[in-house]
Amino acid sequence: MSILGNIIWFFLGGFIPAVLWFFFGLLWSVTIIGLPVGIQCFKMAGLQLFPFGKEVTNDGMGAGSFLVNLLWIFIGGIELAVANVVTGVLLCVTVIGIPFGLQSFKMAKLSLMPFGARVVHVR
């Protein structure tokens, strides 16, 4: 079922935000200091493309993750959260789209504070 969900999600709500994640990952990867942030952006782009069958865990946020999250909110986070919220609202217009809209809202929350989060595959 997660394969079907991921295929539908890719076309309805995952592609454009994933491109945004990838774009911000490229921007952050320009400098050596921003490279860890860019790598996390690429991981989140993969999650944005195919979120079903995966779970996000927050094992705790250290001081470094907190500071990067604060910086991230202003350099990428707001744009990604808005894109996911708009997608979620559009998907929730129909009954069939509600599960996908809820997934989009989860991704909007993750878009604001992605650092310190870990993606786990659920079997």
UniProtKB/TrEMBL annotation:
<feature type="transmembrane region" description="Helical">
    <location>
        <begin position="6"/>
        <end position="35"/>
    </location>
</feature>
<dbReference type="InterPro" id="IPR005185">
    <property type="entry name" value="YccF"/>
</dbReference>
<protein>
    <submittedName>
        <fullName>Uncharacterized membrane protein YccF, DUF307 family</fullName>
    </submittedName>
</protein>
<feature type="domain" description="Inner membrane component">
    <location>
        <begin position="4"/>
        <end position="54"/>
    </location>
</feature>
<dbReference type="Pfam" id="PF03733">
    <property type="entry name" value="YccF"/>
</dbReference>
<dbReference type="GO" id="GO:0005886">
    <property type="term" value="C:plasma membrane"/>
</dbReference>
<keyword id="KW-0472">Membrane</keyword>
<feature type="transmembrane region" description="Helical">
    <location>
        <begin position="81"/>
        <end position="102"/>
    </location>
</feature>
<keyword id="KW-1133">Transmembrane helix</keyword>
<keyword id="KW-0812">Transmembrane</keyword>
<dbReference type="InterPro" id="IPR052937">
    <property type="entry name" value="Inner_membrane_protein"/>
</dbReference>
<feature type="domain" description="Inner membrane component">
    <location>
        <begin position="67"/>
        <end position="116"/>
    </location>
</feature>
<dbReference type="InterPro" id="IPR031308">
    <property type="entry name" value="UCP028777"/>
</dbReference>
<feature type="transmembrane region" description="Helical">
    <location>
        <begin position="56"/>
        <end position="75"/>
    </location>
</feature>
